[in-house]
Amino acid sequence: MISTRSDAIERLKSFLYDGDRVYASVISVSNNGMSRNMKFFKIASNHILDLTGYIIFLKVAGAKKGRGQYNDCALVEGTGMDMKFHVVYCLSRIMEIKLEKWDL
Fold it and tell me: Rounded to an integer, what distance in angstroms lies between the CA atom of residue 91 and that of residue 96?
């Protein structure tokens, strides 16, 4: 079980490498457009690795756990930019590697 920020980063480093593609999908957008529920994945060896839980745990770009039917999503607030890119960019900065964002 992951209990600290450094544990989560080390775990991510075991399967997320420099130059990897992170796929992002917006599941829902709030009525006022100020927040989005999103999911993040990596595809490796024909398997889908869900990164959303790590992003919530690390609070990447201020991400929180979604509410209600979106409790398996990362709730990210903000407007005026590509929020999927922002989350992936912040994750790459935390991990000190270069990641690519791809839309689903």
Answer: 8
Inter-residue contact 51 to 42 (CB < 8 Å): yes
**Of 26, 31, 43, which is closest to residue 83 (Cα–Cα)?**
26
Long-range CB pairs of 62-67, under 8 A, 24+ apart, other chains included: 63/87, 66/27, 66/37
Predicted confidence band of residue 79 (pLDDT cuts 50, 70, 90):
confident
- Does the pLDDT value for residue 80 go beyond 90? no
What are the structural domain ranges in the chain?
5-103
Q: Taking the model in full, what pTM does it have?
A: 0.91
